[in-house]
Amino acid sequence: MSTDLKQEFWTRLADVRAGMLDTGQGRFVPMSPYAEADESAIWFITAKGTDLVDAAEAGGDATLMISDPKADLYAQVEGRIALVDDSEKLDEIWNGVAAAWFEDGREDDSVRLVKMTPKSAEVWATKGSAGFLYEIAKAHVTHDLPDMGDHGTVTF
Known about the structure:
InterPro entries: Split_barrel_FMN-bd, Stress-Dev_Protein, YdaG_split_barrel_FMN-bd
Shape: elongated
Protein name: Pyridoxamine 5'-phosphate oxidase family protein
Number of strands: 8
Number of domains: 1
Radius of gyration: 17 Å
Organism: Litorisediminicola beolgyonensis
Number of helices: 5
């Protein structure tokens, strides 16, 4: 496993297609994160009038929960969110999934771009299902605890 858990987090987050985001309302909603390690940012495309836009306009805090066995990543990410007016960034991350939510696609007046700037994250970068099965079997033979991968807190 990687000794740089922060880099491992960004690498694996790029493969995550959905997470659960809470803007302090105590209500997690599914969102597609778009990771930008170089910017230390996680982007979301949403619509005007959502709780996410309201919280982002106020510059609030948010929690992103990731549980993705395909990316072998589990994380709780804490950070600040802000509404951003950046057409180039929106064009860069726009895709068919986002387009499905808007009647007029990218040109829909309700499209909004939200940037999450992570402050910290508790991260579990696992070895995948084959690695999991191997570690469980090995633990039964050796009576040692299984090595499930890297775990720790990352500060951004």
